[in-house]
Amino acid sequence: MDRVIDLINHSRGTAFSFEILPPLKGNSIRSVYRVIDKLREFDPKYINITSHHGEAVEVRGADGTVRTVNLRKRPGSVAIASAIQNRYGITAVPHLVCKGFTKDETEYGLIDLNFLEVNNLLLLRGDTKRLREPDNPELYHAHATDLQRQVNNFNHGIALDGSPIADIETPFSYGMACYPEMHEDARSMDDDIRYAKLKVEQGAEYLVTQMFFDNTKYYAFVDRMRAEGVTVPIIPGIKPIVLRDQLEVIPRIFHCTFPPEFAAELGRCRTDEEATEVGVEWCTMQCRDLKAHGVPSIHFYTLMASDSIRRVAREIY
């Protein structure tokens, strides 16, 4: 399949792409297909598939005792990526995260993906909120840039133990994440900018932002990256609001802010249906402004929002 960077660069206008989640364990892949079928008409250049590590969950046994187990709720990212490419002929981009996966597990995943000819990745640290601290932290990468170095070595035919890997006909092409409103663990915006620049210096071909609702924050971030000499595409990540409580939940979880006028409109909503309408209107306005500024692509986060994204896309594509 084509590299994401080539798909973006060769697009005649602002490219369209979106992210999906694997179905919860025990559910059918049909839920994934339904989302894709809903958004296919807008010519998605690529589709991202999130990856989920196990979570520490308390389980009560038959004898009444409670124990903590590691439960992976959404498996199947590698298989779904392959299924998408085979079923739709659309480039699939599975997420590769370092938190919750050992270096060896990462290598096995890279081998599987390479055999399946899934050669585009998004490299991420991954969420740590529900992650149990490992007993052997040396078996895991601490940062996305550490994971990046393992992928780079794999591309050069070097396994984790230093042994050769033969016949890698198509090296992995990858993007990484960036944060217009600063990563939650960054000491300062200057540090976050330097870290994003390091990702590009080490081989990231493009960057995708955390979701944001204030375009001025995105433009300011891009300007600062350009001032640092970073020239790769910086793809805005966009999500329409669909629930009233997201006014409080999203800033707390994703560390992004709502413009006062948007927050005021959502605050006046009495139902989720009203919030959905406000979310579609705001998202449409955001995307029109982004397109007017010539962004190379817009990447949509679909969780609970595929119907709204379809409405937005019909207005702007």
Structural class: alpha/beta
Low-confidence stretches: none
How much beta, percentage-wise?
15-25%
Give the distance, in angstroms, between the N- and C-terminal Cα atoms: 24 Å
Task: Report on the biggest sheet.
Answer: 8 strands, parallel, barrel
Produce a short descriptive summary:
This protein has 11 helices and 10 strands.
How would you describe what is shown here?
There is one protein chain. With 317 residues, the protein is of the alpha/beta class. The chain has one domain (4-316): TIM Barrel, CATH 3.20.20. Helices cover 40% and strands 17% of the residues. It has eleven helices and ten strands. It has helices at residues 4-9, 30-39, 77-88, 103-115, 144-155, 189-201, 215-227, 246-254, 260-267, 272-292, 306-316, and strands spanning 15-20, 46-49, 55-60, 66-71, 91-97, 120-124, 173-178, 207-211, 234-238, 297-301. It has an eight-stranded parallel beta barrel, surrounded by four helices. Strand 6 (120-124), helix 5 (144-155) and strand 7 (173-178) form a beta-alpha-beta unit. The longest helix is centred in the last third of the chain and has 21 residues, at 272-292. It is globular and about 60 Å long. It starts with a helix and ends with a helix. The mean pLDDT is 93.
